């Protein structure tokens, strides 16, 4: 998906693309780069970025750290985009932090930047605007904090995650909710199937963010999962939870290569 241009080539390409675009907000840049704007939320410790609309919990413990962003409606896709990874750089503004090479950050989508239609002047997260509300530490890597908002270029990139996909078992025996996180590859999960040792594969339903739910009777059975991402690839984790699994436990499965 991502062509690994070296930074200088990417920058040159970007500058040409931006020149061609001449301010058009929605047009697509060459090589998967697109344009948007970025703001930031929360403090430097990022505690306000935890427990967002994607259903993740403590992002430090879950491996996302502070390298996260909230997405506007146009990018969020009703929560299906949760877990997607982006490379972002500030562009074309006096507020961009300068360097001999373009400064880019890599972030995972963990939250939603809600629209606000009552706001008199344009709310940056209203449709159809593509907008990243970054954690403050990430915003400060590419732009002067006091600017508040900067134009950016961005593209989807593969997610670099440590270890396997994690499955947090929540809910109750009749309504089992599984949070799927630390997903590599393109990162955004579009389908999950579950199998108890005594059941067939059962389609799970997405509840919200990356929380998937099933009514299948899998308590007291070892549990397997099939996780499919937006590029159509699937990773199977067989018997990832033992028959003795308990609610609120998290299990580690296989990972996208
Ligand atoms: C993070 O920073 C905010 C604002 O400075 C503060 O209110 C909060 O207590 C801090 N949280 C942690 C966990 O340090
Ligand atoms: C998240 O987990 C880390 C590491 O366990 C901990 O230091 C931090 O206080 C937690 N943050 C919140 C907001 O609970
Ligand atoms: C970055 O460079 C531009 C163009 O030279 C300049 O206008 C801007 O003030 C610089 N920004 C910072 C933060 O130094
Ligand atoms: C929406 O914007 C208005 C006007 O700025 C503000 O008073 C209100 O609190 C905002 N609503 C939310 C949910 O942020
Ligand atoms: C799981 O965690 C939730 C939230 O912390 C708690 O309300 C619930 O009682 C826990 N369930 C079990 C079985 O430990």
TrEMBL record:
GO biological process, one term: anatomical structure morphogenesis
Domain Expansin-like EG45: 51-164
Family membership: Belongs to the expansin family. Expansin A subfamily.
Database matches in PROSITE patterns: EXPANSIN_CBD (PS50843), EXPANSIN_EG45 (PS50842)
Membrane disposition: Peripheral membrane protein
Signal peptide: 1-27
Source organism superkingdom: Eukaryota
Location (main, coarse): secreted
Matching InterPro entries: Expan_Lol_pI, Expansin, Expansin/allergen_DPBB_dom, Expansin_CBD, Expansin_CBD_sf, RlpA-like_DPBB, RlpA-like_sf
Classification via Gene3D superfamilies: Expansin, cellulose-binding-like domain, RlpA-like domain
Name by which UniProt lists this protein: Expansin
Location of this chain's protein in the cell: Secreted, Cell wall; Membrane
Coiled-coil residues: none
Annotated keywords: Cell wall, Cell wall biogenesis/degradation, Membrane, Secreted, Signal
Residue stretches making up the Expansin-like CBD domain: 174-253
Its biological purpose: Causes loosening and extension of plant cell walls by disrupting non-covalent bonding between cellulose microfibrils and matrix glucans. No enzymatic activity has been found.
Gene Ontology terms: cellular component: extracellular region; membrane
């Amino acid at each position: 998906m991502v062509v690994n241009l070296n930074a200088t080539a990417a920058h040159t390409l970007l500058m040409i693309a931006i020149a061609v675009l001449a301010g058009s907000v929605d047009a697509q840049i060459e090589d998967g780069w697109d344009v948007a704007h970025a703001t930031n939320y929360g403090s430097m410790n990022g505690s306000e970025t935890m427990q967002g609309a994607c259903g993740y919990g403590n992002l430090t413990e879950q491996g996302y750290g502070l390298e996260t962003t909230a997405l506007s409606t146009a990018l969020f896709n009703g929560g299906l985009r949760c877990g997607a990874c982006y490379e972002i750089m500030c562009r074309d503004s006096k507020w961009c932090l300068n360097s001999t090479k373009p400064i880019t950050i890599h972030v995972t989508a963990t939250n939603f930047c809600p629209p606000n239609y009552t706001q008199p002047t344009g709310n940056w997260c209203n449709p159809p605007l593509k907008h990243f509300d970054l954690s403050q530490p990430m915003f400060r890597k590419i732009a002067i904090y006091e600017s508040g908002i900067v134009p950016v270029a961005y593209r989807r990139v593969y997610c670099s995650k440590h270890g396997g996909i994690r499955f947090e078992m929540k809910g109750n025996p009749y309504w089992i909710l599984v949070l799927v996180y630390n997903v590599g590859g393109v990162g955004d999960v579009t389908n999950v199937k579950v199998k108890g040792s005594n059941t067939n594969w059962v389609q799970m339903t997405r509840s919200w963010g990356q929380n998937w739910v099933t009514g299948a009777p899998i308590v007291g059975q070892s549990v397997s999962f099939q996780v499919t991402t937006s590029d159509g690839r699937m990773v199977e984790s067989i018997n990832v939870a033992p028959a003795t699994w308990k609610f609120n436990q998290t299990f580690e499965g296989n990972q996208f290569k």
